Amino acid sequence: MLDDITTTIKAQLYERVTSPLLGSFLISWCLINYKLILILFSSLSAPEKITYIEFNLFSSVQDYMLKGVFFPLIATLAIILVYPYPAAKIYEISRNNRKKLKEIQQKIDDETPITRDEARKIRKAAVQIQIDFEEQTKRKDSEIEFLKSSVLQLTEESKTVIPREKDLTARILELETMSALQRSDITQLTSANEKYKEYIDTTLRFTPQNNYGSPDKKTHASSESTNTKNNKTNSTPHETLILKIKEYLKDTNIFQNQDTKIKAINNQIILEYPHQGMIESYKLGEMDPANFAKSLMEMMDNAKSVWNNRVR
Predict the structure, then answer these.
(1) Buried b vs exposed e over 267-281: b needs ≥16 C-beta within 10 Å?
(2) What share of the chain in percent tops pLDDT 90?
(3) By the 8 A CB rule, do 275 and 243 touch?
(4) Residue 27 has pLDDT above 50, yes or no
(5) Where exactly are the structural domains of the chain?
(6) What pLDDT is recorded for position 213?
(7) Residue 260, Cβ neighbours under 10 Å: how many?
(8) How far apart are CA 78 and CA 270, in angstroms?
(9) 267-283: per-residue pLDDT in tens?
(10) pLDDT digits (tens, 9 = 90+) for 218-260
(11) How many CB atoms lie within 10 A of CB 306?
């Protein structure tokens, strides 16, 4: 709190002291009352100083008013209001005089002939400047030519790189499609292999001879059991999901009767359709056997999004 008060007082005093009116008044007051200042800073005792000031400097109220207020105020107004006009005029005269002196000096320098040594030095410096300029020009020209050749080279390389990049992109897409097809075939072969293995294990399984039932009945029951297992194996959730998606695409005609193919790779459902002379493959989603309806709805939405966001 005290620090804030001290800072505020200092700021107010600084503002007052730096004011043109107050500053001019203080200077005028000090000049008019210089005797008072000398007495105050003299080696006399305090009673002697007071006595001298009262009987010699400020012996009446008129002295207080004239020397303390009136004369310093008149001097202050003169400094603030009158002094700037002659000061500006004198400054203008001084600037004009300096300008005339410079013109006279320049005229003398122009009329004064240079010596041979000075002319030789100037000529030598001019020749050196010309040589440096030509060297810099040649160096810049060579840099410009080098940059032009570099630009042309990069342009030619880009012409060969861009088609190659397109070919590589098309080749990568083709390989990815072939890889997806091969994975689908492998999955189908694996599934078929499991079915055949289950059939062989079921058909060739050893049965004990202490069962005296009818062989025909056992054979018929075994075949019915095998058929039931095969039917269960054939009707997997993936196949049901694929059939539902195909029916949805056929009913809604989203792909405009294009030859679309839906394949299952493990739990991944892949959509393939021809576009711009190539087969494009998209992943519709992952099959969730525990939630068939959710998987079906998400993959139908993904199929619609694939067609709407295709590259036109």
Answers:
(1) ebbbbbbeeeeebbb
(2) 3
(3) no
(4) yes
(5) 2-106, 123-201, 235-312
(6) 39
(7) 18
(8) 100
(9) 788 888 787 777 878 88
(10) 434 444 444 444 444 445 777 888 888 888 887 877 777 677 8
(11) 17
Sheet holding 278-286, edge to edge: 261-265, 268-275, 278-286
Q: To which residue do tokens 């029951």 refer?
A: 221
Tokens in use for 76? 């202050």
**5 residue type, one letter:** I
- Name the pLDDT band for 60 (thresholds 50, 70, 90): confident
Residue whose token pair is 């107004």 = 77
Dist CA 48 CA 100 (whole Å): 59
H helix or E strand, kind and range, residue 28: helix 20-32
Which residues does 270 contact at the CB level (< 8 Å), separation at least 6? 180, 184, 262, 263, 264, 281, 282, 283, 284
Q: 């105050």: which residue's tokens? A: 40
Report pLDDT digits (tens) over 92-105: 999 999 998 888 88
List Cβ neighbours of 302 (8 Å cut-off, separation of 6 or more).
Answer: 282, 284, 285
Which residue in this structure is represented by tokens 């039931």? 228
- Range 248-255, long-range pairs (CB < 8 A, 24+ positions): 248/300, 248/303, 249/303, 252/304, 254/303, 254/304, 254/307, 255/307
pLDDT, residue 152, reads 86
